[in-house]
Amino acid sequence: MRIVVLAGGIGGARFLRGLKRAVPDAEVTVIGNTGDDIHLFGLKVCPDLDTVMYTLGGGINEEQGWGRTDETFHLKEELAAYGVGPEWFGLGDRDFATHIVRTQMLGAGYPLSAVTEALCDRWKPGVRLIPMTDDRVETHVAVTLPDAAGEGERKAIHFQEYWVRLRASVPAEAVVPVGAEHAKPAPGVLEAIGEADVILFPPSNPVVSVGTILAVPGIREAIADAGVPVVGLSPIVGDAPVRGMADKVLAAVGVESSAAAVAEHYGSGLLDGWLVDTVDAGCVERVEAAGIRCRAVPLMMTDVDAVARMAGEALTLAEEVRAV
Amino acid sequence: MRIVVLAGGIGGARFLRGLKRAVPDAEVTVIGNTGDDIHLFGLKVCPDLDTVMYTLGGGINEEQGWGRTDETFHLKEELAAYGVGPEWFGLGDRDFATHIVRTQMLGAGYPLSAVTEALCDRWKPGVRLIPMTDDRVETHVAVTLPDAAGEGERKAIHFQEYWVRLRASVPAEAVVPVGAEHAKPAPGVLEAIGEADVILFPPSNPVVSVGTILAVPGIREAIADAGVPVVGLSPIVGDAPVRGMADKVLAAVGVESSAAAVAEHYGSGLLDGWLVDTVDAGCVERVEAAGIRCRAVPLMMTDVDAVARMAGEALTLAEEVRAV
């Protein structure tokens, strides 16, 4: 079975680990979000790609869900001592090596997709990990922040600044994947979608993770035209995000924070099946009314076995869709 | 009193620490060797400048004489796990920060001299540290190494590869500061020499440290024409280097490994005074016959006080020269 998964960071990575346990022999291609990539200290940092790679490769810090295990932060301390920031982005000493190798390879002329493949040679994540694009896409968030005079000033900031530095503490007025409209899917992305038996949207952020991937021209169309079941898992449980702050950016695109609203946001043109948590069983009818087959199953990612059961439910729903 | 010192790495840095103790109020300008600079992992590494900066700024690893105190090597371990080398060059996690800041500033268009000044803003070494040049100079060493067939193959390797990886275990057939002939002294270098009251050559390597600095067109001439005492301290004590492997590269330039021979190598056109160790008192006459005033004093850099006494002797000899 060939499965394509559109993945963001922590949620996507944990879902993939469960999927691998549920169907160890499946051939999984992950299309990774690069909209939250950022240049820091002259280095190219790809937080979502790395979270997938470290999580599946056994190098992740399990408690925080991102960064490396057994990590130290001496380099970052020294940068701060030089007065060089930002200080709000947590890069550890071990993690830095990934960014140094990546930056060096990009500087030598390799596209990000080739660099990602080379990094995965070490981590052996058990999936094929492809960035959504080799082109530069950077998610910006429009916010209103107080200026020096205490007046509100509207400005666009990098997604990481919104998410990590501000911790989504102010409303996101707009979310724009800058550069997406001119980006091309990375080599292998459209081919993987075209050859897939099933396409899954993990409980990743529908705006800044899955939404950014879908914003690369050609990817949404290829998924809609693939002619295979497309099944998603709700990142919202009981009107709140399973993890993260998805509700903050949903508001920016005019979508209420509910399992049904996210399904409607993707729409029946894209999505064939949708899993909601058992606490949201009441919305199954609404989702199905939108033309999307829906099931209520436990969606809390408490441990790898629980996630494997979720992944199994998603594949079961895909087969139901296929049988129709 | 304005003192100019031509410095390499460990020997130069330790001498400078003693000099600062001997004459705390002197205005010291250090012209640092950049011939052993190397690009590693896409970063610009300046071992000699950093050793001076860390030693005088209180951040040096005292035992090894280079690198940072309280250092860890996690980043380097990870680079090795990615199969990215070289592994023979010891860059620690804290040390990496210096190279990242430097590389970022160079990439932004600042010359190395401005970058060095910015780095020193943090370390406050108590001297003005200027690289000999902002241009690229790279010391290469010609060696004969066995090729795949076991035949000797003559090749030029980077000085660091000769010094650190091979530990000078094969003869240096030639030492070439590649690029030096087209390099210009960095801003401030010739001015500092022109305004100096005394110019000192610490017991640094006469070929790959002081010699490289003198190879930048204009520096040797400015020192010879400065009209102030130029005094050096022998890096050779009892026919062996005080530290390091200076004898290995002296052979490449046809100079015997003795305190007198190094003085003659610099020559009376450049050098006015020369300190040799008491064990080499027998060569004082030979050095003076070469037109260089010479004294035998203890030259072992056992602790900062001993080095301060050495520096004091150098300044005393400078006053003797001036009085003539």
Q: What's the number of domains of chain A?
A: 3
- How large is the radius of gyration of chain A? 19 Å
Q: How many strand segments of chain A?
A: 14
Terminal CA distance of chain A: 19 Å
Structural class of chain A: alpha/beta
* Low-confidence regions of chain A: none
Cofactor (chains A, B): Mg(2+)
InterPro entries (chains A, B): CofD, CofD-like_dom_sf, FbiA/CofD
Pfam families (chains A, B): CofD
EC number (chains A, B): 2.7.8.28
Task: Give an overview in words.
The structure is a homodimer of 324-residue chains. The first copy, chain A, is of the alpha/beta class and 324 residues long. Chain A has three domains: 95 residues, CofD-like domain (Helicase, Ruva Protein, domain 3, Orthogonal Bundle), CATH 1.10.8.240; 42 residues, no CATH class; 142 residues, CofD-like domains (Rossmann fold, 3-Layer(aba) Sandwich). Chain A is built from 13 helices and 14 strands. In chain A, the strands form four sheets. Chain A has a seven-stranded parallel sheet with strand order 5-2-1-9-10-13-14, with helices on both faces. In chain A, strands 7-6-8 form a three-stranded antiparallel sheet. In chain A, helix 1 runs parallel beside helix 2, helix 1 crosses helix 13 and helix 4 crosses helix 5. Chains A and B meet through helix 3 and helix 4 of A and helix 3 and helix 4 of B.
